[in-house]
Design brief:
The chain is of the alpha+beta class and 360 residues long. It has helices at residues 14-17, 66-70, 157-160, 165-188, 198-220, 283-294, and strands at 6-7, 25-28, 36-58, 80-105, 114-117, 123-126, 222-235, 241-250, 254-257, 264-272, 297-311, 314-332, 345-349, 354-359. The protein has one domain. The strands form three sheets. It has a five-stranded antiparallel β-sheet, with no helix packed on it. Strands 9-8-10-11-12 form a five-stranded antiparallel β-sheet, with no helix packed on it.
């Protein structure tokens, strides 16, 4: 097995991602299929979700006059886009391993045996109803509210015909102060034409606030923030990972590939917490082991691994994950399922191929 980490493009792994939400399919063991059901065991795929904020700074048309007319000390001086890595999370996904396909065989006199599989053949349960595999819910961030009024539509004829930019800035500032005065008059009840009711009152105040904000942005500039979620899938090998770079990040460009040196590296470490010792079997023991695995239900025993993600000397993620590639396999003997009265029921974790529960 290749022990290096494989990074697969997101497009090629949409199939694996779809396993997060689907209805398991029941397969009955019948005479027509010789009382056997074929299933797959998965490999562990770690989907890293990067939550990135993209903030766009836009310089105001009259930024040079911000201090003079509105006493704004720090207007935006240049247009720019800034990316920030807000959060990194990981989801364990079972990737169907076509090289790990097995056959569950039942005796013809077993009590109506059946198996639930995912759409891609991953085992969910034996003789037990399988629940819907829910998709992990994402927490949506709300983007900062941005002004939707075009400030140019608020400029009066006098402003548009002004002979210089300085004069235009002066007139726009006067318009801003007029809006503020109107709002104060309404709030204090001194306006000549007061809104007739509470709803109209709020609509007028909201409109004044939006117009003021739009005009002020001609001096201060505007800031718009949106959030992007990017998924990077990684399939571990069988060896530990020690501070390897699998993606990069740039304040100016956002998420980048591992070989794009325009970004700073994001380091990934994955350490097997329960490594399996190497055991040399005699030929006799090897034959016994092969016979044991030739019958019954083979399942995965994942190993726990410590996952650490760091960026700019800060730990973004430090958690424990299950990794099939670091673990081993075992088998449930076929005799367990031969009872005519009370068949054994087994539930699995489909994304791991590991036993969740055995009941009778």
């Amino acid at each position: 097995m290749n022990t290096k980490i494989k990074i697969i493009t997101i497009a090629l792994l949409l199939l694996g991602a779809s396993l997060q939400a689907q209805m398991p399919i029941r397969h009955n063991a019948l005479e027509s299929n010789r009382y056997g059901v074929v299933y797959n065991l998965p490999l562990t795929q770690l989907n890293f979700e990067l939550e990135i904020s993209k903030t766009t700074y836009k310089r105001g048309e009259f930024y040079q006059y911000a201090k003079q007319y509105l006493n704004i000390d720090n207007p935006i001086m240049e247009d720019k886009v800034v990316y920030n890595l807000e959060e990194v999370s990981v989801h364990n996904v079972g990737l169907p391993n076509k090289h790990n396909s097995y056959l569950i065989e039942f005796k013809s006199n077993s009590v109506e045996p059946f198996v639930y599989l995912t759409e891609d053949g991953l085992i969910c349960s034996i003789n037990h109803e399988a629940p819907i595999i829910e998709k992990a819910k994402k927490i949506e961030r709300t983007a900062k509210r941005t002004n939707t009024i075009n400030p140019q539509s608020l400029l009066t004829e006098e402003i548009l015909l002004a002979g210089s930019r300085a004069k235009q800035a002066e007139l726009i500032a006067k318009q801003i102060f007029a809006l503020r005065l109107s709002r104060t008059d309404i709030l204090t009840g001194e306006a000549e034409n007061m809104p007739p009711d509470g709803q109209a009152y709020q609509l007028v105040i909201d409109q004044i606030n939006m117009q003021e904000e739009a005009l002020v942005q001609l001096f201060s500039g505007s800031v718009k923030t949106e959030y992007i979620t990017s998924t990077v899938p990684i399939i571990p090998g069988t060896d530990d990972i020690d501070r390897e770079v699998h993606f990069r990040f740039s304040e100016k460009l956002g998420q980048l590939s591992a070989d794009d040196l325009a970004g700073e590296p994001i380091y990934l470490s994955l350490i097997n917490k329960t490594p399996q010792p190497e055991i040399v079997l005699s030929e006799r023991d090897q034959r016994r082991l092969e016979k044991k695995f030739s019958e019954g239900v083979i399942y995965n025993i994942p190993s726990k691994a410590q996952l650490i993600v760091t960026f700019q000397n800060k730990t973004l993620l430090n958690t424990e994950v299950d990794v099939v590639q670091y673990g081993s396999q075992d088998v449930l003997t076929r005799q367990m399922f031969d009872s005519r009265k009370q068949p054994i029921k087994v539930e699995f974790y489909p994304h791991l191929g590991a036993i969740k529960q055995i009941t009778q």
